[in-house]
Amino acid sequence: MNHPLSLFKYCPKCGAKEFNINNDESKKCANCGFIYYFNAAAAVVAVIENSKNEVLVSRRAHDPAKGTLDLPGGFASLHETIEETVIREILEETRLEVDAVDFLFSIPNLYEYSGFVVHTMDMFFRCQIDDFSNMKAQDDVLELFFIPKQELNPMDFGLKSIKEGVEKLQSLAI
Q1: pTM (2 decimals)?
Q2: What's domain 41-172's architecture?
């Protein structure tokens, strides 16, 4: 797999073609000196449990990993805190309103989208929701349902970081 920086041919500041690899994380323009750093995109994952010790899972409606299980979440928008991101993503995907969020852990990931590999930092949050009556799959979610925590199978989840996150949740007994 080629490094994503290989797809950037021209300097985004001045447009020069002399936009060369500077190191593993950056390219530098020989014309204007601009250095572009390729950083991880911030993404969130919500771990939501109901009063029966069941975890809310979704089925992905689109690629990557279409049709596999997932946990609600997505990418941070500009000018948004990571806590705002998890609250917004849950609302967009489930119509549920979050009462509280607590950071659990993070996992670096590779997320291929439209033939481009996005390096992400997936941040897992425990999200408290008191009212599930408005729950409905929407956005890029095909369906939503609960699975007893002890029956979660990491291999049912299509994205690498989610598999790892489910394994970590099980090992930590969170």
Answers
A1: 0.90
A2: Alpha-Beta Complex (3.90)
